[in-house]
Amino acid sequence: MRIGVDIEQVRPVDLNALASAVLSEAERDYLVDIEPYLRQAAFMRCWTRKEAVVKASGIGIEAILWQIDVQPWEPRAVVEHRVVGCPTAIWAIRDLPAGPGCSASLALPAEAQPLLDFGRDRGTPSPTDTTVAQEATQWRPPPRVQVRTARPTA
Predict the structure, then answer these.
(1) Contact (CB, 8 A) for 107 and 55
(2) In whole angstroms, what is the distance from residue 152 CA to residue 120 CA?
(3) CB 93, CB 77: distance < 8 Å
(4) Closest CA to 129 of 90, 103, 92
(5) Residue % of the chain over a pLDDT of 70
(6) 74-114: per-residue pLDDT in tens?
(7) Environment class of residue 138 by beta-carbon count within 10 Å: exposed (0-12), middle (13-18) or buried (19+)?
(8) Which of 33, 134, 114 is nearest to 74 (CA)?
(9) Selection from 70, 41, 40 nearest residue 53 by Cα
(10) Which are the contacts of 103, defined by CB distance < 8 A and separation ≥ 6?
(11) Nearest CA-CA partner of 146 in 29, 54, 55
């Protein structure tokens, strides 16, 4: 099974310079709508999710990152990312506990999504989830943005 993992230290980045090249429209809206002090961590959350997906697909940083919407307002996301030669097109993403000042994500084929639960009930936040993840679950994209969210089946 293909998997991708990324971990990054949360550090200041030039959001104005990177946002249009890296983030989808919904992700940019999300960053604008959250508290300013959370934006750097939220950007790194998007980045690690995207990196995990492109690593799992085998394309790496050559991917057009703004086309991959990783739904940072969701505790877990299911996204589409197709790469020639990769049998998987739908990916499940989960944030990983990485300690203070770090962001980490895991991506694997959507059919393996139950593995993301790590023995917990679906939808129950982990005690190690970050403030960004907790606040992110309350944000919803504006009505003009259509976001497809796949829900796990029992």
Answers:
(1) yes
(2) 14
(3) yes
(4) 103
(5) 73
(6) 988 999 888 888 888 899 999 999 889 999 999 999 988 77
(7) exposed
(8) 134
(9) 70
(10) 7, 8, 10, 41, 44, 45, 47, 48, 95, 130
(11) 29
Spatial separation of the C-alpha atoms in residues 140 and 147, rounded to whole Å: 9
In the block, tokens 């990152």 appear at 65
123 CB contacts (<8 Å, ≥6 apart)?
Answer: 75
The stretch 36-60 carries a mean pLDDT of 92
Which one-letter amino acid corresponds to residue 37? Y
Cα distance between residue 102 and residue 18, in whole Å? 19
Instruction: Copy the structure tokens of residue 60.
Output: 């790496």
Q: CA-CA distance, 107 to 60, in Å (whole number)?
A: 13
Tokens of 12: 């200041």
pLDDT at 50 over 80: yes
The structure tokens listed for 119 are 């023995």
Pairing relationship of beta strands 102-109 and 76-80 according to DSSP bridges:
unpaired
Provide the residue type at 3 as one letter. Answer: I
